Amino acid sequence: MIVEIELGGKKRRVELAQRGEGPQWSVDGRRLQADAVEVENGIFSILIDGESFEVRVEPVGGKLSVFAGTRQWEASIRDPREWNRNRSNAAESEGRQKVIAPMPGKVIRILVRVGDSVTVGQGLVVVEAMKMQNEIRSPKSGAVERLSVIEGQTVNAGEAIAVIA
Fold first, then answer.
1. Closest residue by Cα to residue 76 from 54, 61, 56, 55
2. I need a surface site. Which of 2, 5, 6, 126 has the fewest CB within 10 A?
């Protein structure tokens, strides 16, 4: 995947390729040891060359506001697949939703039970990954139909955690 990002007035070309053991990142042709996981809607845990950052991204008009620590930047992203991705998001808030692990880790706490009513953004499960605790939140309001994990269980990225109906 290749995207063009304008951040703070500087244009960058970011490339992500999945090869072998993990993702391969490069910015303007320079390779980085990096990983990024969306831990909840608009909040990302980013690891770059061994340093961890929490970044919040908020849409403002046709651009993005990016917050990291006390700093803020205006950003825009050009991705040819964006139109298709945005079209599919409309259906995500309706019907039964499978909640998946965004990263590999260990389930350290389950915050809900089967049958519980939940609201959009409510915490469901806490997964520990890279010595950080990440709360996995509900993508919609509804009821917990199924929990697919137990405390202490190891999960892989993309593995089902719960179903919200």
1. 61
2. 2
From first CA to last CA, the distance across the chain in angstroms is 32
Report the distance separating Cα 64 and Cα 60, nearest Å: 5
- CATH topology (fold) of 95-164: OB fold (Dihydrolipoamide Acetyltransferase, E2P) (2.40.50)
The per-residue pLDDT for range 89-98, each reduced to its tens digit, is 444 456 788 8
The closest of 134, 161, 138 to 148, measured between CA atoms, is 161
DSSP state of 103: S
Query: Rg of the chain's alpha carbons, rounded to an integer?
Result: 17
Q: In angstroms, rounded to a whole number, what is the distance separating the alpha carbons of residues 50 and 76?
A: 26
Q: How far apart are CA 75 and CA 53, in angstroms?
A: 17
Report pLDDT digits (tens) over 113-136: 999 999 888 999 999 887 788 888
**Contact 39/102 with Cβ under 8 angstroms?**
yes
Q: Which CATH class is domain 2-83?
A: alpha beta
Q: Is 31 helix (H, G, I), strand (E, B) or coil?
A: strand
The pairing of strands 71-78 and 63-68 is antiparallel
Look over the chain and give the mean of its residue pLDDT values, rounded to a whole number.
Answer: 82
